[in-house]
Amino acid sequence: MNRKLLKSVREYKKQAFLAPVLVALEVLIEVLIPLLMANIIDIGIMEGDMGYIIRMGLLLVFLAVLALLFGAKAGQTAAVAAAGYAKNLRHDIFYKIQEFSFGNIDHFSTSSLVTRMTTDITNVQMAFMFSIRLLARAPFMVIMSWIMTATINIEIAFLLLITIPVLGGALIFIAKKAHPHFIAVFDEYDVLNNTVQENVNASRVVKAYVREEHENEKFQKISLRVFDLFTKAEKIVAWNAPVMQFVMYAVVLLLVLIGGESIVTEQMQTGELTSIMVYAMQILMSLMMVTFVFVQIMIAEASSDRIREVLEEVPEMKDEENALTTVPNGDIDFENVSFSYTGKDGNLSLKNVNLHIKSGQIVGVIGGTGSAKSTLVQLIPRLYDVTSGCVKVGGQDVRKYNLEKLRDQVSMVLQKNVLFTGSIYENIRWGDENASDEEVKRVCRLAQADGFINEFPGGYNTMIVEGGNNVSGGQKQRLCIARALLKKPKILILDDSTSAVDTRTDALIRQAFREEIPDTTKIIIAQRISSVEDADVIIVMDNGEINGIGTSEELLKTNAIYREVYESQVRGGAENHE
Q1: Residue 575, Cβ neighbours under 10 Å: how many?
Q2: Which GO-annotated molecular functions does the record name (predicted)?
Q3: This prediction's pTM
């Protein structure tokens, strides 16, 4: 078991320690039972002493009940320790993910992170439980049973001793062969889960294009790949049982041969042979138990490596020791900023950007697909860090701010609008969990969402289903804008977040911005010229560079890209209207 992961046992150390202690007590009692049975046969039955038989019988019943109680308590304690360990692991991974930047998250797929927090942690949990109970039991049982056998017949004891390295060697050989297949199968699990997640999320698109058969074939192909890998691994692991059975029956035959001869020559009594048979079975069953646990540990080892990758991932963004906690205003400066998603040696998405935005300004950003509009604004709240140059907010490099405090002052409505399961009130209060009902309603009025919310039977208490699929695209956008406004930010960024609303609603939202939050810097990325035409400044992006900056009138005179878009939309729209 990975030592780094074992740190997550924490408050369950007591149970993790108590379980093997209880197991040890259970084993001590169990190794006494065959000895008492031998005495009942050799003394009570052979001498016809009924009183002795009754006394020993009652003692056997008492020890059996005691062993049962210790075993049950050990199982319960081990289950609590393992479940607590898994709970802490999930906690640690989830909290670690919260520290990740977008760059860290890009390193893992969503489905992979889900698999690590579910299937992989379950594998580790089961292996941990078996380790502190069964793996603790087996060696102790082997040692105690061998000692008891040695006190009766040393020759048989050495025979049993030989079986241990034979089985151990076979076990190690099997483990080395199977382990690579278990590692590969969990990587395929990531692909499988990603396919399922993608298919469920895009079920409307799949049905609209009648692609169910294609998706079924894709799923079947990946599922078969998982099946093949598991089959290969299990075929190797399956050798455990026959090897174990062969050794077990071979030992039993030798015991009968040696023991029978010893009884005939009166070197050993019948009861003693019976107890040795029981001890031999205890040793062999314990070794079989070890093989079973070892298989679980092999599976868990592959899972623990994947969990450790997440826990050891170094967050790209860390607060400085004396990080700034106050953002003075919404001034934004880009100074020779270049950025690449793949690091310094990768292709640059932004190239030598220089830009100054005054606090309170309304700034429009337009450009073709892939012109790096979203990339530009994602650097402001440090969703990514610049590759070179610096981004300043309120006159300070964003890297000098406490990350939480910076993002508290920068509200961003992303292209992919996300609502969470819960009421509309609960979703809007993501912006401020302590906001009053009236404050929630106020920002919804600003975002032009109040009207349609009141049309729902439940009003603001209407429940949003997973992914917000019970509201339209335009309604979802307005709810997300309201949520961002509730933060009362110094900077508000709308990344193509009004594309699904009509032009009149879009204009009303912009008017509310200008009148109700004049001191907030507002950056609006849009495809429609009408969404940015009245902005104080419009930035034209092209191929990761700023192609032009100015008002709409200035850009019509000086910028070919803006003029082309304007004419295709405004004049084209007018012609269609005519």
Answers
A1: 8
A2: ABC-type oligopeptide transporter activity; ATP binding; ATP hydrolysis activity
A3: 0.67
Closest alpha carbon to 479 in 426, 402, 520, 529 = 426
Q: Is 524 helix (H, G, I), strand (E, B) or coil?
A: strand
What gap in Å lies between CA 213 and CA 235, rounded to an integer?
32
Encode pLDDT of 172-191 as tens digits: 777 777 777 777 777 777 77
Distance (Å, whole) CA 236 – CA 294: 13
Give the per-residue pLDDT at 487.
Answer: 84
The identity of residue 327, as a single letter, is: V
* Cα 369 from Cα 131, distance rounded (Å): 55
Q: What are phi and psi of 63, to 5 degrees?
A: -65, -35
What does the alpha-carbon distance between residue 286 and residue 139 come to, in Å, rounded to a whole number? 7
- 447, containing H or E segment: none
Beta strand 396-397 with 463-464: parallel, antiparallel or unpaired?
unpaired
Residues 6+ apart with CB under 8 A from 171: 240, 290, 291, 294
385: Cα separation from own chain's centroid = 24
Question: Which of 442, 557, 532 shows the shortest CA–CA distance to 488?
Answer: 442
Residue 574 confidence (pLDDT): 46
What is the rounded distance in angstroms from the CA atom of residue 527 to the CA atom of residue 515? 23
Question: Under a CB-based contact definition with an 8 Å cutoff, are residues 304 and 131 in contact?
Answer: no
User: What DSSP string runs through 283-350?
Assistant: HHHHHHHHHHHHHHHHHHHHHHHHHHHHHHPPPS----TT-B-------EEEEEEEE-TT-TTSPPSE
pLDDT digits (tens, 9 = 90+) for 95-124: 888 888 777 777 777 777 888 888 889 889
pLDDT tens, residue by residue, 331-373: 999 999 999 987 777 788 899 999 999 999 999 999 888 889 9
- Give the tokens for residue 491: 């900077």
Where is mean pLDDT largest: 324-333, 337-346, 504-513? 324-333
Give the separation between CA 434 and CA 143, rounded to whole angstroms.
62
Residue with the two structure tokens 């429940």:
463
Element (H, E) at 124: helix 121-130
